[in-house]
Amino acid sequence: MQVVEDNVKSASQIKSLTCAEIGLLMSSYVFGSNALQMTSNLIYLGTLLLFDLYEHQLIDLYFRLDDTSISLKSTSPSMFPLLEKLNHRELALSLSIVPLVKKAPQSLPDVHQNVYKELLKMSCLLNEPSPILCHDFLVCCKTQMFLNMQMNEARAWLIVELAEKNLITYERKFLIFFDYFLTESGQEYSTYLADQLSQQLQGGYMKKTSDFPKFDCETNQRNTYVVSQLLINTQYSNLKKCAKVTNTTYDRAKQRQIAIGDQIGALLRKPELKLQPENQESWFVAMVTAMGLCMEEAMSTVAAYM
Fold first, then answer.
1. What rounded mean pLDDT belongs to the chain?
2. What is the DSSP letter of 77?
3. Which domain holds residue 255?
4. What is the pLDDT of residues 39-53, one digit of tens each?
5. Is residue 150 part of a domain?
């Protein structure tokens, strides 16, 4: 890996970042410092990339119960009683990935094509894509050699993408080891994202400590919400260093996530209803909550056997 100097973009020209870019930046950011502690959590990274694949319309996410795939956007009324009987953990473990195409478009970045190719290898039955459990895919991000390699390549690719956008720089420390730093623009962007993250975790009631309207857009708010629901399930130390949230705030946010997870069946009765303070539609809140809880289960599974 070499320091990227050509074709860099001004951060002021970058309105939004992808979920994976925000997720990598926030999991590595130390509030008030320009030095980054780059994350190596491949299950977390795999969850971010799954959301990117979803945004590119390569996959859909369903609950798989009793050999029935239950859509989050248009749930059959007959499925509500079954969903409402299940708790957050049971629903998270039933979350399934449904591949939508046999091959990713060439127009997508190589990293997304390669991750999707590995996902298809896991899901294909008689040469036809079939649903696979999200939990199993995420466990394989850490334990299966080829998917593990794709996760590490994706991490390197995201670093280069952030460098090309003039948000970070990196320099060789020793052999394959690098130090990573925020640029001045990257520090400004990260401060904005950390403020957004804090407000998401505190229910939107925290007074803003900074104001960067040039970065403020619906895409960044939506993607920061997704990242907040994933970071809750890593470690409190990650949120403390990047967003300066208290242990009480963390506990309340986690309890709220579990409460939402237990009420997913009720949420899907009105999938287009916007929840507050998330300001997101019910089906989307249900999906992101299930993804975060599923990621937590996958990390627990790997920890138990390694």
1. 88
2. G
3. 20-305
4. 889 999 999 999 999
5. yes
